[in-house]
């Protein structure tokens, strides 16, 4: 992950250059006229999202939550979000969360299972949200091409959840088949045995996490919905602040498709792909110049602010590890 951080300055430059290149000189004047109190409100919403995710983390940890105090849980969430935004494809997020939880004495399989359960909860929310957006698209007579993208997204999410369920239900068959493939690749039997043992431990920990009380899991899902509804309301508030009236469902769809395109770019935080996709989808509604301003403010709140606020927390949590590596390298 340390080497991936070298891409961050280049990606940030690209993220700032795209809106200014598309919007032109009028962009600065529009930025100065944007309501400052609305910007503060949106930054407060992001802070509330971090608190919600910290509560989700403690609920999923269950009896292991004693290893993390509430401030430590919040710091873990902020550091994880920073790593997710600062690395290609968000690859640093799970590594950071895993490392921080294990350092607090939480078993490695449980740390991995907590991340997996958190991601499964997110997938369920997005599947439900996309189904509701599909109903809105049908009623509002949205462009048929967008209806096709919505259908494809629903199909992909359903496929991922179905594969996860099949893996949990038929783990033994999966291990037998994968073991034959690995044997065909001539991997040592000890390595194959170690991989199978780790998968079984992860499955047991994941089933234990998903086997928590229904009340606890329902609360986790409610907090998940609150987090994503807050975060995906930012673009709607930005457009409202610019003086335009756009349906919330449309801004939700813009953000979902933009972030999917950003992940495909494999740059930190989906830079480049997210900006271009969101600008292209907003331009027919509010114009090119206004769309560029909206995208710039939206990305500042949902990406740059994550980096600015999360970097000091990440540095405080990992400074001893990086310092120890540097001293050993000098020796």
From TrEMBL:
It is a multi-pass membrane protein. Keywords: Cell membrane, Membrane, Transmembrane, Transmembrane helix. It holds the Pfam family LPG_synthase_TM. GO terms for cellular component: plasma membrane. The chain crosses the membrane at residues 41-61, 82-103, 123-142, 149-168, 216-235, 304-323. The keyword Transmembrane applies. It is found in: Cell membrane. This is Uncharacterized protein (TIRG00374 family).
């Amino acid at each position: 992950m340390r080497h991936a951080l070298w891409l961050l300055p280049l990606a940030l430059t690209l993220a700032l250059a795209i809106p200014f290149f598309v919007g032109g000189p009028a962009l600065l004047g529009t930025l100065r006229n944007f309501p400052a109190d609305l910007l503060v409100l949106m930054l407060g919403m992001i802070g509330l999202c971090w608190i919600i995710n910290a509560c989700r983390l403690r609920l999923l940890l269950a009896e292991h939550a004693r290893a993390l105090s509430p401030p430590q849980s919040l710091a873990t969430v902020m550091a994880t979000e920073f790593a997710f935004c600062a690395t290609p494809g968000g690859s640093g997020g799970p590594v950071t969360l895993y490392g921080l939880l294990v350092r607090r004495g939480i078993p490695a399989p449980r740390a991995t299972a907590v991340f997996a359960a958190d991601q499964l909860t997110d997938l369920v929310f997005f599947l439900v949200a996309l189904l509701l957006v599909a109903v809105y698209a049908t009623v509002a007579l949205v462009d048929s091409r967008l209806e096709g993208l919505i259908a494809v997204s629903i199909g992909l999410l359903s496929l991922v959840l179905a594969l996860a369920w099949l893996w949990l239900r038929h783990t033994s068959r999966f291990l037998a088949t994968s073991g034959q493939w690995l044997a065909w690749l001539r991997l040592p039997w000890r390595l194959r045995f170690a991989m199978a043992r780790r998968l079984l431990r992860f499955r047991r920990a994941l089933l234990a996490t998903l086997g928590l009380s229904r009340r606890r899991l329902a609360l986790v899902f409610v907090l998940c919905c609150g987090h994503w509804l807050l975060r995906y309301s930012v673009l709607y508030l930005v457009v409202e602040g610019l003086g335009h009236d756009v349906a919330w469902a449309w801004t939700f769809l813009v953000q979902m498709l933009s972030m999917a395109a950003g992940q495909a770019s494999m740059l930190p935080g989906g830079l480049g792909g997210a900006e271009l996709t969101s600008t292209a989808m907003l331009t027919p509604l509010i114009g090119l110049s206004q769309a560029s301003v909206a995208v710039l403010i939206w990305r500042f709140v949902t990406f740059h602010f994550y980096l600015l606020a999360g970097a000091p927390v990440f540095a405080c949590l990992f400074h001893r590890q990086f310092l120890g590596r540097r001293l050993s390298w000098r020796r």
